[in-house]
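Exam review. A common question shows you a sequence with its structure tokens and asks you to describe the fold in words. Practice with the pair below. Do the first one on your own.
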Amino acid sequence: MSDHRWEPGQTVVERFLRPDGSIGQHHPLRVVSDDGRVLFGWLPRGTPIVGSRLADGRRMHEAPLGQRFRVPRVPVPDTWLGTSTLRMITEDEWSSVWWFFGPDGVFLQWYVNLELPVGRTAAGPDRIDGVLDVVVTPDRGWRWEDEDEAVEAVAAGRLTGAHLDRLRAEGERLGALAERGAFPFDGTYTDFRPDPDWPAPKLPDGLL
């Protein structure tokens, strides 16, 4: 159990660190609940974030696969687009589970972001993105996402082969839960609605 614990309605910042210790993206989350181990946080579409681009200005997916983990990256102001997202970030697990909601608030799908847990600071949870991910559809089907990028991340030294083995095992564990319709894929939170009085979470000043 972490020494850092947050109250509902607070804003925390999820930081995605890199293996070299540098900080990549910052995502502000409105705390839904937190027990010191499992944090539920809300990131509505349109929220300002700190994103990252390749140092030459390209977005990662605009670069050929072989360059994506070899060209240096820089932080840039960005916006969380597409879906509003409820995240379940469990302190000692190599994944977080995201519920995606459309602009009308209707649940779309789950996304398992495979990650290396790094701990918590007073400001929020720290994670290392594991590149490989899992998509879980409303009917509990699941598939891998970004397998080619994960292999390239290992080849470029961004992750180790041992990391990828652990991340893949975590993805298979979550996929098995989905197949059984077990939590968190049992329908819990698919009707989630944020407190209407909550403003969108904001990043602290001075990050860029």
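Now try the second one, then compare your answer with the model answer below.
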Amino acid sequence: MTEHIKLPELSTDEGFDGESFSAIYTTTVTVSGGVAGHGRASGRARSADGALGLDLHMPAELGGDGRGTNPEQSFAAAFAASFHGALSLVARQTALDPAVISIEATVALGRDPGGGGYLLRVDLVVKWPDIPPQIAAPLIEKATSLCPYARMAREGTPTTITLAP
């Protein structure tokens, strides 16, 4: 028998008072080990709670064996999951069933033409069968404003990088 998951309340804009960031969830993932000489992440990614454990490998297109997850795949999964959640929330708020929604995220790694480093490009494709574009478009726009990954891509994300003592 399948147990039903209790869905969160449908609020998207209530209870957000204050002038500064207030975390409602925090997680830590550590990547260690692997071959670092090639400048690409390899090794093992593990969350502090042990729920996530990934072996990281270079994709075959970059000279790796391609037999494991790479950072771009992880990012694509996270972005698609986050956007799917945001769109599902706004669909439920308008009494639409989000069960048929799927999000396809394509992440491309490339050279930064202006800085000599690397950049990511993300393309999201929303698949929402039987929903007319004139109904889906404003809901996708609202989901874009709610999704933290979409906001990060559009506005940047405050980031600190420190050396541990």
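Model answer, second protein: The beta strands are 29-32, 43-47, 53-56, 102-111, 118-127. Helices lie at 71-93, 133-146, 148-155. Full marks require stating both points clearly.
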